[in-house]
Specification:
The complex is a heterodimer.
Chain A: H1 2-12, H2 15-34, H3 40-58, E1 64-66, E2 71-73, H4 75-95, H5 99-102, H6 107-126, H7 130-148, H8 155-186, H9 191-200, H10 205-222, H11 231-238, H12 241-266, E3 268-274, E4 277-280, H13 286-305, H14 311-332, H15 335-366, H16 377-380, H17 382-396, H18 402-415, H19 422-448, H20 464-482, H21 485-494
Antiparallel strand pairs in A: 1-2, 3-4
Chain B: E1 5-6, E2 9-10, H1 11-28, H2 34-58, E3 73-84, E4 92-101, H3 106-122, H4 130-149, H5 153-162, H6 164-174, H7 179-207, H8 220-223, H9 241-257, H10 266-273, H11 276-301, H12 303-308, H13 310-330, H14 334-354, H15 358-389, H16 400-403, H17 405-419, H18 425-439, H19 444-468, H20 485-503, H21 506-524
Antiparallel strand pairs in B: 1-2, 3-4
Helix pairs in contact in B: 1-2, 1-4, 2-3, 2-4, 3-4, 3-11, 3-15, 3-20, 4-5, 4-6, 4-11, 5-7, 6-7, 7-9, 7-10, 9-11, 10-14, 11-14, 11-15, 13-14, 13-19, 14-15, 14-18, 14-19, 15-17, 15-18, 15-20, 15-21, 17-19, 17-20, 18-19, 18-20
Classes of the chains: A mainly alpha, B mainly alpha.
């Protein structure tokens, strides 16, 4: 009986997820009724997400535990839910612009697959139980396998989906094994229980490292971090561009939410020693693992991207590197680092989605994402070209764009007195110099080089709607670069994890 | 804290953001209206000149500024960003829109307005995609002007980086054959330098504690106050390793811009590939940002480290002077020769700064201005000959003196000024610099060695005169026209200034001498 009331009570706080599920079903039914391509399904999906956003908003200041400690609601989860909703609404709008999707016979199905991944992401952001974590991760992963391989006629798409699936299955298997080891040792699936156990009982170091590496393998796969990144470029290249954008932003953000909660809650003491800094469980140096992953991601991502010829592959490697930057926020392991990471994630959302939107527009017109083919393109589509230049400069972290603010806060967090990560800050910034080289490659191809017949080719026009979307993505990229107070305040108030005080 | 406003907006804000307004207007015009675009851009630069003259009329040269808030002029101070950083141990991030001018920055503001105008007129020969060109050009002026007047480190950094990408496009789209290489090289070099600047900036932020508010700060004036750094912070103890490292980090950031050997290799590439007007801006203003950064940020914030690194800086300056001159002598390309001569002349500036004497520092700032005007003329003159002959090979010419007498006259004044002939402006600044160097016992020997640079300087300039202007005129150049009116409009004002400041240098030196005295007495304290 007690359990039953608990569940009833929890359901009240489960409304955001429930509204996503309802929308998903509505989309399915609408698809069956309509049976042809129309924007209605997309509109239903967007409306449902907005309803869900309203319920998320109602939970703004709530901190509670649901379903007997399976899930929690806290500002951290709320932040990520906003992020998922915003990014998937933008992606759903992208669907209406992308020829790759519009020409597909399964256009409507894409919409509810997106919702299904959002549901998985919601659960990832709020689960505090190893089993729940695994299940939500799998829900998100399975959906993304389908998304990646859904253009059945495309050979590349099927190939990338297959790769994705195999890597995914292997890495989540490894992660499950790590989790079971942790369970076997501590006797609990609840991450708070585990943390308490680790804090009070001496634990063999080798064992802890083993489990952490195994868990990091599963999560690193989701965030496409080195050395679990091998699927990324292929899948990014093979999937329809909006889906690539979705995987790069929403899906990897979900991975970050999970990895952050898991490491900060499990492997840290649950009390704050000073305001904002957590106590470290003696003998557990999990930061070292994250540092290795983070630095490797930055270096591999940035250096390999230099040689890419396909814009989508380039953005794939770029997102590997960007993931590396974000993990730097986790390394600092306190409220400041967490805030910096959230700021970077919000910055990343705007600039990366912007870059992908330009890619969609270009792929629509050119039919290819080969950077060589874009020679002189900037003169044929000046506004889109300039927008791309802004997004590229933002991704490389040039001031007056939101990307710089993200980097600035990450470096600040790393250089915080007593953190001792000065070298890490320097590595991060030097990496952003390297990244500039390949981001500018796109700009260079569009503006600095000219095809032999650039002047003869007619200008390319886009619909008014696409310009509006582009401007809507440009505004936050520049505005928050010049006036970043709001974004910092939001991130700061969201850097609160349930159960850590 | 004197203020000066036009239409309720501070005069420095006008200086910084008028070009942005011009850029918006240029962008709003249709592409085919090339004439309108040109004249609007040039018109905005004229407006900038007017405002700078208005500022000059209201400038009080008795005020020193540098590290005293009261001595700054045309101050504008508004809170820009004010957010709590998470957790009490960090406190607030408080960034101000803080502009102001004093004897260190005001000459550079004048120089930027002047060279900006000259460059805009020189740009009239651009015949490709004018709309984009002038938009980028105006944006570049904003970046440079902003860097010169920003007094908040964060703001300074934003302006410093912002000017990179218009420059990248200006070289990369309108440049010569190897423009792609030159553009990316310029961008990457400068960005590499700013990595260290950013790191030092954040370190300064964390170790500072505003004596009045108790908060961390980016305010450069507050950071110059030694009391800002509590003894337990990174930079709390004068002369500690952190301070020396921070100075070195900032020095790399600024030295790349100057450029100081061994960070100079981007400059010849960028200069040779850039269109004439951009070379003028590059040599005339952009290089000064590096040396300006040294006296605005590095020296006053880390005076102990400035004294410590005096000798290495002088050595680097000497290398710049001699190596630059020797490289210039070896060039076959007119433009590359001037690019290397810039390296040599910026070495003088660094030497004057390294002397840490009032006279040397006065000479250094004066030399910054003079090099700006003289090199601008020289690049314009290279542009003139290149537009006509489509070659810059020094050995392709000869006997131009008779063929193009007006051109010869203008060029010779610039050349003689560059050698440091008495009566022309650079003579004063160079002699001040060497006087300063001699007065400092530690770097006296280095100064003596560097002084041989003067002979090398004369050698490569006179040899160039011989190769280009004297001797037989090759028959293929029979059709060359003399310099045109437009080209005279862009160069004559500079020539007038070069001569005027050579005859009556106090005009200029009065502007800055109080500030320089204050700066040096503060550093040597």
């Amino acid at each position: 009986m007690n359990n039953f009331t608990e569940i009833l009570k929890s359901i009240n706080s489960f409304l955001p997820e429930l509204s996503v599920i309802t929308t998903l079903l509505l989309c399915l039914i609408a698809d069956i009724i309509i049976r042809k391509k129309s924007p209605i399904v997309t509109i239903i999906a967007i409306a449902g997400l907005l309803v869900s956003a309203y319920f998320v908003y109602m939970q703004s200041a709530v901190q509670e535990s649901l379903f007997s400690g399976m899930l929690v609601i806290d500002p951290f989860a709320v932040f990520f839910k906003y992020l998922f909703i915003l990014s998937s609404i933008i992606i759903l709008i992208f669907f209406e612009f992308s020829n790759e999707i519009k020409e597909s016979t399964h256009k409507n199905e894409y919409s509810y697959l997106i919702l299904s991944l959002v549901l998985g992401a919601f659960l990832m952001a709020s689960s505090v139980n190893l089993l729940m974590m695994y299940l939500s991760l799998e829900l998100a992963s399975l959906t993304s396998y389908i998304l990646a391989g859904y253009s059945k006629s495309e050979k590349k798409s099927s190939e990338s989906s297959m790769k994705y699936l195999i890597y995914g299955a292997a890495s989540s298997g490894i992660m499950l094994y790590g989790m079971s080891l942790l369970y076997g040792f501590t006797g609990s699936l609840d991450i708070y229980e585990i943390s308490r156990y680790l804090a009070t009982n001496p634990t063999p170091n080798a064992f802890i490292y083993l489990t952490m590496i195994m868990i990091a393998a599963g999560l690193g796969y989701k965030t496409s971090s080195v050395p679990f990144h091998f699927w990324t470029p292929d899948v990014y290249e093979g999937s329809p561009t909006p889906v690539t954008a979705f995987l790069a932003v929403t899906s990897s953000a979900a991975g970050f939410s999970l990895i952050t909660r898991l490491f900060l809650t499990t492997f840290l003491g649950s009390t704050q020693i000073v305001d904002g800094a957590f106590s470290i469980i003696a003998g557990i140096h999990w930061q070292e693992i994250i540092i290795v992953i983070s630095v490797a991601s930055m270096i591999v991502g940035n250096f390999v991207a230099i040689w890419q010829k396909s814009l989508k592959r380039l953005l794939g490697y770029s997102s590997i590197a960007q993931g590396g930057y974000m993990l730097a926020g986790l390394v600092v392991a306190d409220t400041i680092g967490l805030t910096a990471m959230l700021i970077y994630l919000s910055a990343y959302l705007f600039m990366n989605l912007g870059a992908f939107f330009v890619t969609i527009l270009i792929v629509n017109k050119l039919g290819t994402d080969d950077i060589e083919q874009m020679k002189g393109l900037g003169y044929r589509l000046p506004f889109v070209g300039v927008a791309m230049a802004v997004f590229m400069l933002a991704l490389s972290g040039i001031p007056a764009t939101v990307g710089f603010i993200g980097k600035f806060y990450l470096v600040t967090a790393l250089m915080k007195p007593g953190a001792g990560y000065l070298w890490f800050a320097i590595v991060l910034m030097l990496n952003s110099v390297v990244s500039l080289f390949f981001y500018l490659k796109v700009v260079k191809s569009m503006f600095l080089e000219r095809a032999d017949n650039t002047d003869e080719l007619p200008g390319i026009k886009f619909s008014v709607q696409s310009y509006i979307i582009l401007i809507l993505l440009l505004i936050p990229t520049i505005f928050f670069g010049l006036y970043f107070g709001p974004i910092v305040k939001l991130a700061e108030s969201s850097a609160v994890l349930f159960g850590i005080r | 804290m004197a203020e000066l406003k036009i239409l309720g907006i501070g005069v420095l804000s006008w200086m910084v953001f008028l070009p942005v307004l011009g850029m918006i207007i240029v962008l709003a015009l249709p592409k085919s209206q090339t004439k309108a675009i040109k004249y609007i851009a040039a018109g905005f630069m004229v407006l900038l000149m007017f405002i700078s003259v208005y500022m000059l009329a209201n400038y009080d040269s008795s005020k020193a500024g540098v590290n005293s808030l009261e001595g700054l002029q045309f101050v504008e101070k508004v809170t820009w960003i004010d957010v709590d950083f998470p957790a009490a141990m960090i406190g607030k991030i408080h960034i101000e829109y803080f502009l102001g001018a004093d004897g260190l920055s005001f000459p550079m503001v004048l120089l930027t307005a002047l060279i900006g105008f000259v460059g805009a007129v020189a740009s009239f020969s651009i015949k490709k995609n004018e709309k984009g060109y002038y938009a980028m050009y105006l944006f570049l002026i904003t970046g440079m002007m902003g860097t010169f007047v920003a007094l908040d480190f964060f703001l300074f950094f934003v302006f410093w980086e912002i000017m990179l990408f218009p420059m990248y496009f200006l070289i990369g789209i309108w440049g010569g054959e190897r423009r792609l290489y030159a553009a990316i090289k310029f961008f990457l070099y400068t960005l590499f330098g700013s990595v260290f600047m950013l790191i030092v900036m954040i370190a300064l932020f964390f170790s500072s504690k505003d004596p009045q508010t108790g908060l961390h700060t980016f305010n450069l004036i507050t950071l110059m106050n030694p009391q800002t750094f509590p003894p337990e912070s990174f930079f709390g103890v004068l002369g500690n390793t952190w301070r020396l490292l921070a100075f070195a980090g900032l020095f790399i950031g600024f030295a790349i811009k100057v450029p100081v050997f061994p960070f100079h290799t981007w400059l010849p590439d960028a200069h040779v590939e850039a269109p004439t007007a951009i070379s003028v801006i590059l040599a005339g203003v952009l290089l000064k940002l590096g040396t300006y950064g040294l006296i605005r940020i590095s020296f006053p914030i880390f005076p102990d480290a400035a004294r410590y690194f005096m000798y290495p800086m002088a050595i680097l300056a000497a290398i710049n002077i001699i190596y630059g001159a020797l490289c210039a002598m070896a060039q076959k390309d007119f433009k590359k020769l001037i690019a290397y001569s810039s390296i040599s002349h910026m070495g003088y500036v660094l030497l004057g700064m390294a002397s840490l004497t009032t006279i040397g520092m006065n000479g250094a700032i004066f030399q910054m201005f003079n090099h700006g005007t003289i090199t601008a003329v020289m690049f314009l003159m290279v542009g003139v000959i290149y537009d006509r002959a489509h070659t810059r090979g020094l050995y392709d010419f000869g006997g131009l003196a008779n063929k193009m007498p007006k051109y010869f006259a203008v060029t010779m004044i610039a050349f003689f000024a560059s050698i440091g002939l008495p009566g022309l402006s650079a003579f004063i600044s160079e002699s001040f610099i060497f006087l300063g160097g001699f007065n400092n016992e530690i770097i006296r020997i280095v100064t003596i060695v560097s002084a041989t640079g003067i002979i090398l300087n004369a050698a490569y300039i006179l040899w160039t005169v011989q190769r280009v202007f004297l001797g037989e005129l090759p028959t293929k150049w029979d059709g060359l026209n003399d310099i045109s009116v437009r080209e005279l409009i862009s160069s004559v004002p500079l020539i007038v200034i070069i001569i005027a400041l050579g005859i009556y240098p106090s005009l200029f030196i009065n502007l800055m001498s109080n500030s320089v005295t204050q700066l040096i007495s503060f550093i040597m304290k």
